[in-house]
């Protein structure tokens, strides 16, 4: 008679936590030296681990990146990158926007370990954490003085383009499927909204 192998319970090696600072005790230097394949943001001594993006999320991010890269290179305006890329909003606060644009006149804000507050950021809303992109980051990016913030909401199938006025974001436009989303900062840059959702369905 065959006997089944005894079940083994597995637990994390909790002792490994002793190699890292406790939540609330992380310094900016600790955070910048952290090597991981996860998206990790930093807020005044604490780490915030973001959900892993879905395939559709990544297709949208790359689609937006490609359109921006072509536009910026054609007009010699600046650089665009995608997460993972640490962005310092202010001392003690780092985020990793999905898409980040820095114009040439602010190239001194680009550093190897991180960028300082860029000129335009885009977030593809995570279904697991909608409040973060729709509310929290909206307040934080405005506080950091980022002139333009795009919220790409696949669930609602709309793109909101927000511009900074009096230290707060106002809607320059909310674009549904069939419309063409336009940047207020990058004159001439526009995206067919339907094309974004088509990219997600590759």
What is the helical fraction, as a range of percent? 10-25%
- Rg: 20 Å
Structural class: alpha+beta
Please list the strands of the largest sheet in the order they lie side by side.
3-6-8-9-10-11
Helix count, DSSP H or I runs of 4 or more residues: 4
Biggest sheet layout: 6 strands, mixed
Q: Can you tell me the CATH topology of the largest domain?
A: tt1808, chain A
- The outline comes out as globular
Look at the structure and give the mean pLDDT: 89
Low-confidence stretches: none
Portion in beta strands = 25-35%
Under CATH at level 1, the class of the largest domain stands as: Alpha Beta
Q: How does CATH name the architecture of the largest domain?
A: Alpha-Beta Complex
Give the distance, in angstroms, between the N- and C-terminal Cα atoms: 52 Å
- CATH superfamily placement of the largest domain: tt1808, chain A
How many independent structural domains?
A: 2
Tell me the total number of β-strands. 13
> SSE order, as H and E?
HEEHEEEEEEHEEEEEH
Descriptive notes:
26% of the residues are buried. The protein is α+β, with helices and mostly antiparallel strands and 202 residues long. The protein starts with 27 loop residues before the first helix and ends with a helix. It is built from four helices and 13 strands. A hairpin with a 2-residue loop joins strand 4 and strand 5. It is globular, with a radius of gyration of 20 Å.
């Amino acid at each position: 008679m065959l006997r089944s192998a005894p079940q083994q319970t597995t637990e994390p090696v909790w002792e490994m936590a002793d190699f890292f600072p406790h939540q609330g005790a992380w310094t900016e230097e600790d955070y910048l030296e952290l090597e991981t394949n996860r998206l990790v943001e930093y807020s005044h001594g604490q780490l915030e681990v973001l959900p892993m993006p879905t395939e559709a999320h990544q297709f949208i991010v790359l689609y937006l990146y490609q359109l921006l890269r072509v536009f910026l290179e054609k007009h010699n305006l600046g650089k665009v990158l995608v997460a993972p890329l640490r962005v310092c909003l202010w001392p003690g606060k780092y985020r990793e926007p999905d898409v980040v644009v820095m114009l040439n006149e602010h190239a001194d804000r680009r550093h190897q370990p991180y960028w300082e507050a860029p000129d335009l950021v885009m977030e593809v809303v995570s279904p697991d954490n909608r409040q973060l992109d729709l509310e929290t980051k909206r307040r934080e990016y405005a506080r950091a003085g980022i002139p333009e913030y795009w919220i790409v909401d696949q669930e609602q199938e709309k793109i909101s383009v927000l511009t900074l006025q009096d230290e707060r974001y106002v809607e320059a436009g909310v674009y549904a499927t069939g419309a063409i989303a336009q940047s207020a900062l990058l004159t001439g840059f526009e995206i067919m909204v339907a094309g974004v959702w088509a990219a997600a369905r590759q």
